Amino acid sequence: MTPIVLFVPPRSGHGEKAGHKRRYAKEMKWRSNTSQAIEPQVVSVTPAHSSRVAIERIDEILIQMFALVGEAIAGATQSLLAGDRPTAKLIIERDELVDELARNAIIAISNEIIDEQHSPQERRELVALLRLVPEIERNGDLAEHIARRAVRTVNTEFTPRIRGLIERMGEVCASIWMHTGNIIADRSTSEAAAIEDLDDEIDEIHVALIGELTSKKISRMVAIELSLIARFYERFGDHAVNLARWLESMDGSVVEPPSVSAD
Fold this sequence. Notes:
By secondary structure, the chain is mostly helical. Helices cover about 70% and strands about 5% of the residues.
C-alpha cells in the first residue's frame, strides 16, 4: 500500500480511548484569539503501522477537525454579536484547513477500508468514520456562513431579545459539539440523549428567533440575514445528531436514518 500523507495534530503518545479524550479535551478548549489554534503536522502512515494504529491516527484528524469547528462556531457567534470583522475574517480563512483535513481523512479512510489486514469490526468502524467526515466538515461550513454575516455587520439592528437568542444558540451549539466530540473520542453513545435534548433546545430557539423577526420593525435585508443565521445554527444541531447516530452503527446495529435537509 502506498504511504499516505495525513495532517494530524501534535501527539504525545499512542491513542487509547482515554488518551484520545485527553487530547480531545485539550484541543476543544476554546481560545478567545483563534489565531492561537494548533497548526497541523504532517506525518506519513505506511504499512509498517498496525491496523489499529492507522485507525487511531484517523481519529486524531477527526479530533482536530472537531476542535477547529468548535472554535469556529464559538468565535463566529462572538464576532456576530460584537461586529468583530477581523476575527470573523480569520474564521472564514481557517475553514479551508477544516476542508483540507476532511479531504485527507476521506482518502486515508478509503484506503484503510480496502486493506485486507482489517477485521470486519474494524471495517464497520471505518465505514462509520467515513460517514462522519462530511457531517463535521459541513458544520465547519455553517460556522463560516455565520462568520460571513459578522463581516457584513448586520448586528447594528439587533434588539436585546434577538441578541440574547443568538447568544444562547451559540452556547447550545458549542455544548452539543462538545458532547458529540466526547462520543467520538470514547466510542460511547452515553451522551446521545443529551445531544438530542440540546438539539431540541436549538429548534425551540430557532422558532423563537423567527417569531421575533416577524414582530419587530427591522429592515427586510437584516431580517433575511437573521433568518439564514437561525437556520445555520439549527442545521448545526442536526448534523451533531447525525454524527451521534452514525457512531451507533459501528457495532453493525441498524440506526435511525440521519436527518436530511438542504443546507
